Amino acid sequence: MTTALLLAFAALLATPARSQTTAVDRAQVGRQVFFDATLSEPRGVSCASCHNPDLGWAGNNGSVTGVAAGSHRDRLGRRNTPTVSYAAFVPPFAVKAVREDGRWVRKAVGGLFWDGRASSFEEQARGPLFAAAEMNLSGEADLAARLRAAPYADALRAAFGLSADADDATWAAAGIAALGAFQRSPEVSPFSSKYDAVLRREARFTPAEARGRRLFMAEDKGNCAACHVVAERSRDPRRHLFTDFTYDALGLARNPRIPANADPDFFDLGLCGPDRRRPDGLDAAVCGAFRVPTLRNVAKRPFYFHNGLFTDLAQAVRFYVQRDTHPRDWYPRGGGNRVLRFDDLPARHRGNVNVDEAPYDRRPGQAPRLSEAEIADVVAFLRTLDDGYTR
Q: N or C: which end of the chain has fewer CB within 10 A?
């Protein structure tokens, strides 16, 4: 981030919103920025192109490869677009000491993007706005010029108190801050799912949904809540975010539709790159780990996991429970018909894959932790996490 933009952010943030009305105004103009398809080069792509509310605030700008397309349709990213749904609750990235199995271990927690490299919406927004493979703006001056020409320019100026002679960095900072205000608004985190209605005692789960919830929570079955955490005894929806914000290596199969994967020497290692360096205080055991996403609005998303490998929610759940019992169904074959497990990681990091917790703690030939009927029940429960529920 340039010094000028840092100073502009500091000036904007040093003066808090003058009132609740001002905060709402900032979110409202931020909504217009978020859906503005003139903020790309060539024009036609907005933030909402990859964070579509109808797709659970995810989506890949129409790409069918599992990863996002940019404003130039032939430029594809390396990862599936993460949802911004409930991202307002993601804590800043940190390495923390936590107690596990009677010992202290250091773990990465929080941060935006799949690898946590941004600790705020304002920091995150610069990625897609200025990335050649995404919205492809040339810099702050380019963004500022488009904001000045936008139909909401006066609203943006008023919401952030921009002077008549505000420079490019200040305009760019205001536009980016507006995006942050919108993404922190209730529209993006409405807590309006059936699950929330059940928390409020305004609805009841169907028998299948109730069975799915029990399987989701059970440590000897789905064990989903080990990472997709909820506070069972609380009725505060903010304590039911379905993530602990930590990082895990799932051992996904390689997605051959990602152009970068045509290079056999390329591997996406999450916390260890290519978009960040391994965080200080963590060793190579975190290579291949990605942040645990919220499951809110999960059934609306068109692609699953960081590499967009699956397009079907039931198939994503099935992978969790059959990865180790039926590896031939999930991974390619190599010489001698050998199954190439965890082939989206280099051999030196395949030992980082989680194989200890249920439902991964199985071997080929053993029964999976969940049957097909139980997978269907878990999916029924997961569908209750989609916002927009009406009786």
A: C
Is residue 237 in a domain? yes
Total domain count, the chain: 2
Q: Burial letters for 354-369: b for 16+ Cβ neighbours within 10 Å, e otherwise?
A: ebeebbbebeeeeebb
pLDDT in tens, 72-81: 999 999 999 9
* pTM for the structure as a whole: 0.94
Report the distance separating Cα 239 and Cα 229, nearest Å. Answer: 9
CB of 154 within 8 A of CB of 21? no
Render pLDDT for 152-167 as a digit per residue (tens, 0 to 9). 999 999 999 999 999 9
Which residue in this structure is represented by tokens 């990465």? 108
Residue 69, strand partner residues: 76
- The CA dihedral of 342, 346, 351, 356, to the nearest 10 degrees, is -30
Q: How far is CA 152 from the centre of its chain?
A: 28
Q: Report the run of H or E that residue 26 belongs to, with start and end.
A: helix 20-34
Q: What are phi and psi of 176, to 5 degrees?
A: -70, -40
Q: What are phi and psi of 73, to 5 degrees?
A: -65, -20
Q: Verify that 176 and 285 share a domain, yes or no.
A: no
